[in-house]
Design brief:
This protein is of the alpha/beta class. It folds into three domains: about 5-100 and about 360-515, P-loop containing nucleotide triphosphate hydrolases (Rossmann fold, 3-Layer(aba) Sandwich), CATH 3.40.50; about 125-340, no CATH class; about 525-720, no CATH class. Helices cover about 55% and strands about 10% of the residues. The chain has 34 helices and 14 strands. Strand 6 (about 245) and strand 7 (about 250-255) form a beta hairpin. Helix 16 (about 360-370) runs antiparallel to helix 19 (about 420-440). It is elongated. The relative contact order is 0.10.
């Protein structure tokens, strides 16, 4: 991407803004925006775009909002390509940590082994669904198996059951529908104990009938007999003309065919299950199942009376049914067990590798710990699951208090951290997201809203170092927003941001513009080189006065003070006098020659102030604001001195002249509330704008030109 075109209308606090960010030479911009101009509205509009949310004007919701964020081809930037960093958001937690943990090589080995097992398992589960009748999503064979055998791993269950599944007779219950017998209603009924007496009597009668049978016994019931009959048929026993002798209690009866064998079993089964006494016991059970919700259960038992006796220990019956299903599908079951044993070692090796893996996540944390001083360390407790299974990372915080440490959750940690430490934790989460985007090679429009605000200088420079690394990344297109001019100047220098990419937010009526900042280093240097411009000559007075004070030029300091406070000699100081002072203090200006040297400085000051007054606000640079501030203070002092009418008092003021004049004026004219309010505003707004040096001129940069212009006109009217 070469250009980012932005057009906002009625977007929160922005009435209108159109700007093209050109990323040809450097993919980073720094925008200095005085408080109240546009910074939050700008970032919030981008945030809306990133989330696919509408943008509007909160104060005037009826206004039609326009939000266009496009590339050089007029193509709208996708929300996923925008990432906005707020100054601070305690609730923000990166959702991209897992992307920094994954090792693709280890994961591939694991996935291939797991896939082989899963394919075998899916084939078996499909058959178990058919046999059990559990075809829904809420209750599945896997869920029920884990519940019945009380294990977390279904493979562990399958391994434990291998011996039992291999017994031929364990297919006896494979035709029973698990879903028909066991659900929330039937299990609740069986566990209530309401049917236990009836089941006990049924079982006793059933066992008595078995004991009296000439063919079947408790140890060889009809299930066992059917199993024997089936195995004989399957193995060609009768086809080979073999016969079976059944003992009927008196004699041996020869059975010459499978059909005759089956007929004998069914006759004996019918004799027992249709016994009048047993039927009576079943009816007693049936009455307990008269509830509508249990009617289906009753109907199923009526068709399968042979399992009623097993319901007294229904949990055992559940297990036997599952074993029977697995025995029914012995081939698929064996294939799964064999594959599992082969792949289990591969999977365990991958898990061990994942646990010991050093990840990009740890690299981010290590760098963070080196750059920031915080009382906690963080780790991931389930790194192997994150790498191999795509699980959500479980972040563990360890808080350190000297030699003692304690593991805490995030909410508890936030309660004990200082604001700076909380903000550092927020920065760490931001870094996870940025690093993940960098690793994925994602194109990202990065809007950073005063990320370093309220940090101490050590941590502020740590952030600058991060921003430098981000600005040099391949697919990051960064716009840094700040209302801190010192930070703006710092990142512009440290990140090597070209002049055309250092912007200043200015308002001109209803329009907001981003213009190239003029004073990107030391404005005093620029002024000294251009003293032919009278605006620079006058605006340099506070700087040179500071130098005179620092360097011990007492006479020069007092004379320059007379140009910032109204003294007896103020109106007699000429430009020639100013030239002499500048030559003396500024050693590189020993040959300075100022034009119109016979003019009085104060006349030039007010002439410049009047020129500035009619200029557009957007052209009011630093020197213009300084000139207005000096003029405002001199006009205010002139008004108060005239009203107080005590020159001896004025001459006796050695420092803080404006404040002392205001105190005297308020004492003499306590009812002049309008002038007092205006003069207090002067005393509040102008000192920091006049007493400045080359390092600290942010207050006057933050002040909107229209405020100073209005104050100038209002104070001028006092003297009218």
């Amino acid at each position: 991407m070469k250009t980012l075109s932005v057009r906002f209308e009625s977007c929160y606090g922005i009435r209108q803004l159109t700007h093209d960010f050109h990323f040809k030479d450097k993919k980073v911009y720094s925008v200095y925006a005085p408080n109240g101009f546009m910074k939050t509205s700008f970032s919030k509009t981008f945030s809306d775009a990133s989330k696919g949310l509408p943008t509007g004007d909160v104060i005037f919701p009826e206004r039609l909002s326009t939000r266009l964020i496009q590339d050089e081809n007029g193509i709208e930037i996708k929300g996923d390509d925008i990432f906005v960093i707020e100054p601070y958001n305690q609730d923000f937690s990166s959702d991209k940590v897992s992307l920094l943990v994954v090792n693709q090589a280890v994961k591939k080995t694991y996935d291939e082994a797991v896939l082989k097992i899963e394919k075998k398992k899916d084939s078996l589960i499909t058959k178990l669904k058919q046999l059990s009748g559990l075809t829904g999503r809420a209750v599945t064979p896997e869920i029920e198996l884990r519940k019945c055998f009380q294990k977390d791993s279904i493979f562990e269950i399958f391994e434990e059951l291998e011996e039992k599944v291999g017994v031929p007779e364990n297919t006896r219950l494979s035709l029973i529908s698990y879903a028909e017998l066991f659900n929330d209603k039937t299990i609740g009924f069986l566990e209530s104990g309401k049917i236990q007496t009836e089941l006990k009597e049924y079982i006793e009668t059933y066992n008595e009938l078995l004991a009296s049978s000439s063919l079947l016994k408790k140890s060889f019931n009809h299930f066992h007999a059917k199993t024997v009959q089936k195995n004989l048929v399957d193995n060609g026993f009768f086809s080979a003309n073999h016969t079976v002798n059944l003992f009927n209690g008196k004699n041996k009866e020869e059975i010459i065919s499978a059909e005759l064998f089956n007929e004998k079993i069914e006759e004996e089964k019918k004799r027992i299950l249709c016994n009048a006494e047993l039927e009576k016991k079943f009816d007693a059970i049936d009455k307990k199942l008269s509830n509508v919700e249990l009617r289906r259960f009753r109907d199923y038992l009526f068709e399968h009376k042979e399992i009623v006796a097993d319901l007294s220990d229904y949990k055992k019956l559940q297990k036997e049914i599952w074993i029977s299903y697995l025995a029914n599908q012995r081939d698929l079951y064996s294939e799964l067990i064999n594959e599992y044993r082969v792949s289990k070692g591969i999977i365990q090796a991958a898990i061990n590798a994942a646990k010991s893996e050093r990840t990009a996540w740890e690299d981010v944390v290590e760098i963070f710990n080196k750059r920031f001083t915080v009382p906690f360390k963080i780790s991931i407790s389930n790194q192997d699951d994150v790498i191999l299974k795509g699980s959500i990372p479980q972040i563990v915080f360890t808080f350190y208090d000297h030699e003692v440490s304690s593991k805490v959750d995030r909410n508890s940690l936030l309660k004990v951290l200082s604001q700076g430490e909380k903000r550092a934790l927020y920065i760490l989460n931001i870094l996870f997201d940025l690093t993940a985007r960098k690793r994925q090679g994602l194109k990202t429009i990065l809007v950073v809203d005063d990320i370093a605000d309220s940090f101490d200088y050590k941590n502020k420079y740590a952030i600058v170092e991060y921003l430098k690394e981000i600005s040099e990344a391949g697919e990051f297109y960064s716009i840094f927003l700040t209302h801190n001019f010192d930070f703006h100047r710092t990142i512009s220098s440290r990140l090597g941001i070209p002049r055309q990419n250092r912007l200043f937010a200015v308002k001109n009526g209803r329009d907001l513009k981003l213009v190239q900042e003029i004073y990107q280093k030391n404005p005093f240097e620029h002024w000294k080189k251009n003293f032919a411009n009278h605006r620079f000559v006058v605006s340099a007075i506070p700087f040179v006065r500071n130098l005179a004070e620092y360097c011990g030029y007492e006479d020069e300091f007092l004379k320059l003070t007379c140009l910032l406070h109204l003294k007896v000699s103020t109106k007699s100081i000429t430009i020639k006098d100013l030239e002499t002072i500048y030559r003396s203090i500024l050693k590189d200006k020993a040959n300075l020659s100022l034009v119109n040297s016979d003019r009085y400085v104060i006349d030039l000051l007010f002439e410049l102030a009047e020129e500035i007054l009619i200029e557009p606000d957007a052209t009011a640079e630093l020197e213009s604001k300084i000139i207005l501030s000096i003029a405002i203070r001199l006009l205010a002092e002139e008004f108060m001195i005239k009203k107080i009418g005590d020159q001896n008092f004025v001459d006796g003021i050695a420092e803080n002249q404006t404040a002392k004049l205001l105190t005297r004026f308020k004492a003499k004219y306590p009812l002049d509330l309008g002038p007092i309010a205006l003069l207090e505003q002067v005393n509040l707004m102008t000192p920091e704008n006049i007493h400045l040096n080359s390092f600290m001129y942010e207050p006057i940069l933050d002040m909107a030109p229209e405020h100073l212009k209005k104050l100038y006109k209002d104070v001028k009217d006092l003297n009218a």
